[in-house]
Amino acid sequence: MQKAFGKKSVIFMFVFPAFLIYTLFVVVCVIWAGYYSFFDWSGVGAKTFVGFKNYIDLLTADTVFRSTVWHTLIYTLINVAIQVFGGLLFAILLSRIKKGRVALQTLYYIPVVISSVAICQIFSKLLSVTPTGIVNQLLSMINPAFATMEWISNPNLSLYVTAFVEAYKYLGLYMVIFYAALIGVPGELSEAARIDGANVVQEYWNVRIPYIKPVIVANCLLVLNGSLRSFEFSYLLTHGGPGNASELMTTYMYKQAFSSMKYGYGSSVAIMIVIICMVVGFLFRKFTGGGEDE
Amino acid sequence: MKRKLVAAALAAAMTASLVLSGCGSEDSGSSESGSENGERTKITALLKGTESTEQYQVFNYLLSNFCDEKGLEYEIELVNDMQDYFTKLQMYINSNTLPDIFGCPNGTLSQACLDIDALVDVGAELERNGYADKLNGAIRDFLTDANDGNLYLFPQGLYCEYFMYRTDIFEEAGITEVPTTWSEFEDACEKIADIGEVPVVVGGSDAWQLMRYLSFAPWRVTGSDFITGYQDGTDSFSENEAAQFSVNLLADLGTKGYFEPGFASVDYTSACNLFFGGTGAIFYSGSGNIGLAEEMYDNGQLGFFPVPDVDGMDNISTNVPVHAGFAEGFNKATYDDTMQEFFDYMCENFSDACYTQAHIFSPFNEELPEGLPQLYYDTQPMFENAETAWTSWDDKLDSDVLTQIVDEQQKLAQGLTTPEEFISACDSFVAK
Asked: In the predicted model, is pLDDT for residue A40 greater than 80?
């Protein structure tokens, strides 16, 4: 058996189906989008070849696209901060308690299994202004003016609210991953630290967290990847609005392609998303020393 | 050698995937429902909405009865989201595989269907079966093709829109007469706000709701001239007095706090629930909400008034927006004797389906049946003889321009841009 897995033909046999599916559903789609991006096409009727015009317009004249890139980066940072570092904090707290740990773990994980549509509906009701939602009702106990506080429809807050909602949904997922990593830290390392006089904070800061650094990096990459391509929360909660206040690159691409029916232009936005994702991913790997071990 | 093998495998994978994806885009040229060996077995329809929307209720009723009689099957494909629906319809148009009946607005998509010769001349069919004269004039106007003046779409129903108001709040605010001009409307809003009530409920997250306030003045003054001129580049917001009036009106209503707090995140369904649940004094509603308004109206808690006049300008006589809803097209490629028979059956029974199944007005000028809620009888005289249809900006504007205006109108209503900035932005969306 061991011998068979060492054979390249066997490895190829296992890898090929995944490779084929990936090629079909990712590579071909990207190539196809790249092809469309050189055309002016409404999705109906004839396509007109325009060369690099879509890209030139996108990079030189489209101020909304520029703002969506900025929004997406902010959105990603918030998500990394809450999902990865919030998840880590929750995992640490979880690893410190004995009673009710399983119940809490399950409770925090529930949003992960609820669909994004339902989560968005729940938050739109919680944050509703008319009729007054629970959040504003509670806040109005502190100051009655908070009863009409706008969250989703406030252009200064909508992006942060959207990012928070996505982060809330996936926080539990990363918490579970970190918890699994933390309980995998060998007990003798912590014991040695304690013998050397380390307190709890020092033990985590100098022993446990450095030990699980590869997991932190991998989670950062996963959140980074997910947030840069995030679509549903912005689309369902705010429609990218008010105006373009919470517009992300993905919702902008959707609007261009399917609302404005500019398939060519929308495809050029899609290609830019691919490029930006690759650049950000590459830079992240470079700064975190990813791939050194390979 | 190994490299060659890997390269060959890659090439094979790419070729296979291209071939496979290419297979899906081949034109098949006919609907899957169509005819099988010359004999039709099924009627297919693509409609926008859910099983509780009017278009489905009407067509499900008609198709079910007709197919039972004829021993046929029928299949209705439903797509609820507007964008998803348009995408699906485009896919069918591109591949020339449209179903027998499909929901289609009068505009870019109907033009795309005409470009591939996929629409039956409904006007000619109505002439043939004698229903042309019964069709409401405004409905015909709404669906008439802008290029050749023919009628290619069949109305979903007859929808009239008007403002509903709470009589108790009006009384409390000291408003004795319903507003007949926009300045009176704003005065009424001020009085209502002064007594601590929400003057106007609007579903600001649904684009069409705010867009109505942008459209009212140009429609009352120019009919469809402004919006078609704007789209063609021959008119602009900065040149048209009525358009400027509407921009200022929307900015006023939004920034003076006449809309409910957080209106930009309230959708139309929630707005309906708010108003008919007791929040707000005025709501732009219409015949589509008679079911919700019925009880309050019968109790004397609700009244209605048409779209006010634009102050200081000549207004068209029609002051109640009348439209045909989403409309339906019939696929010319599959329009055989059975489909013609269904068309005649549909015309004969359409009013019955409208009143008994969907609870909407029929597009045919026929006497209202007995036993309907009182609002039907009281509002019908407003549109009975209307000849000018509502001009829906959603249908007349290019998708790209429409999307941009939708973003801008929300900013305008929230006071994030000034009317001048809005006008300048909108005028830049269309090439002169």
From this structure: yes
Q: Which of A80, A112, A107 is nearest to A216 (CA)?
A: A80
- 8 Å CB contact between B41 and B73: yes
Count Cβ atoms below 10 Å from residue B316 Cβ, excluding itself: 13
| A20/B13 CB distance under 8 A | yes
Rounded to an integer, the average pLDDT of A104-124 is 93
Of A239, A244, A261, the CB nearest to B399: A261
Higher-confidence position of B331 and B95: B331
Which of A:160-199 have CB within 8 Å of B?
Answer: none
A260-269, B13-22, B169-178, B369-378: lowest mean pLDDT where? B13-22
> Do the chains contact at B263 and A153, CB–CB below 8 Å?
yes
Least CB–CB distance from B17: residue in A23, A128, A242: A23
**B123 and B109 inside one domain:** yes
Q: What domain range is B240 assigned to?
A: 160-322+388-427
Contact B14 A124 (CB under 8 A): no
> Token match 């009689």: residue?
B69
Q: A258 touching B, CB under 8 A?
A: yes
ipTM of the complex: 0.73
* Cβ pair B281, B169 in contact under 8 A: yes
What value does the mean pLDDT take over residues B162-170?
A: 95
In a domain? residue B299: yes
B103 and B12 co-located in one domain: yes
Domains of chain A with CATH codes: 58-291 (1.10.3720.10)
pLDDT bucket at B396, cuts 50 / 70 / 90: confident
Number of domains in chain B: 2
Same domain as B35, residue B184: no
B-contacting residues of A 17-36, CB under 8 Å? 19-20, 23-24, 27-28, 32
Asked if the structure places residue B382 within a domain, the reply is no
